[in-house]
Amino acid sequence: MLDLILMALASGILMGVLYGLVGIGMNILYGVMRVVNFAHGEFMMLGAYMAFSLHHMLNMNAIQSIVVVLPLFFACGLLLFRLLGPRLQRSDDPEMASFLTFFGISLIITSLILLIWKADPRSIPLPFERVSFLIGPVFMPVGRMVSGAICVVAIVLISVFLYGTYTGKAIRAIIENREAVSILGIDVQKISALVFGMGLSMVAITGCLITLAFPALTPVMGQSYTLIAFAVIVLGGLGTPLGALLGGMVYGLAESLSSAFMPVAFSPVIAFLILILMVLVRPRGLLGKVSTRV
Asked: Cα–chain-centroid distance for residue 193?
């Protein structure tokens, strides 16, 4: 029993770090622009399939593919902002307008994946000789450990950028109060475009790393990760990478521990019950602040 609990804890922590990175991009994008990216999981899925294609075309492993996929998604984010950003911000209800827009984009991405890669599950071979190794009584999958370590590095770099650079502080200021920042002379549109690119870049990293943590890619996996991203934001709080990491850990541990003692299909129920409890008890999340936005 103890071995089972330890393995569930280890798995929950590793997956929680990955879930944290899933949520950060959506967290910052919503905080800056009030854009609800309902295609978040589909963009992540597209990044994973692009990593699959890079492996078969150029023999690149999942980690190497980040070098190609990340700047490509950043450019895609800038293009999307140019096409959609100003129009969404000028709408009477940016949240609902963005929700409907990105819901349509999610359907388009899913259809394109089915058209290009078909419905068969795809996978990328792990770039490691060993699949797992034993630490005490716990078997640790190498793929999940490596993906977790890269996620931690990415979250640390994002935190350094947000808290240690002028542009990062401007992003945090916009999350706190967009109107006041505009008065101070900060170019909100330029920052918003950067955030759009950053959001999709983080999705690209996660999409490549998800191929290390899970053996198969399917065209229907995106929606579940969109829901996880929403859960991470609610659990951790708006506008903080540490909050996203903490929210991802809570979700990952709840999912992993419940699946150890209950049917696997029931584990998301426990995780979302915790989410509902968080909304009732602390709606701004574990590390979220009271918004000053008017």
From this structure: 18
Residue pLDDT, tens place only, 22-44:
888 888 888 777 788 889 999 99
- Please check whether residue 85 lies inside any domain of the structure: yes
Distance CA 116, CA 132 (A): 32
Separation CA 131–CA 135 (nearest Å): 13
- Alpha helix segments (H runs only) across 118-266: 142-164, 166-176, 178-183, 188-213, 222-236, 241-261
Task: Check pLDDT > 70 for residue 292.
Answer: no
291 domain-assigned = no
CA dihedral 213, 122, 76, 64 (to 10 degrees): 60
Burial of residue 272 (number of CB atoms within 10 Å: 0-12, 13-18, 19+)? middle
Q: Tell me whether residue 290 is in a domain.
A: no
Full residue range of the structural domain in which residue 204 is found? 6-118+139-281
Q: Return the closest-CA partner of residue 248 out of 292, 201, 209.
A: 209
SS3 of residue 126 by DSSP = coil
What CATH number corresponds to the domain at position 194?
Answer: 1.10.3470
Q: What is the pTM of this model?
A: 0.90
**How many structural domains does the chain have?**
1
Closest CA to 254 of 266, 242, 237, 236: 266
Is residue 1 assigned to a domain?
A: no
- Provide Rg for the chain, Cα atoms: 19
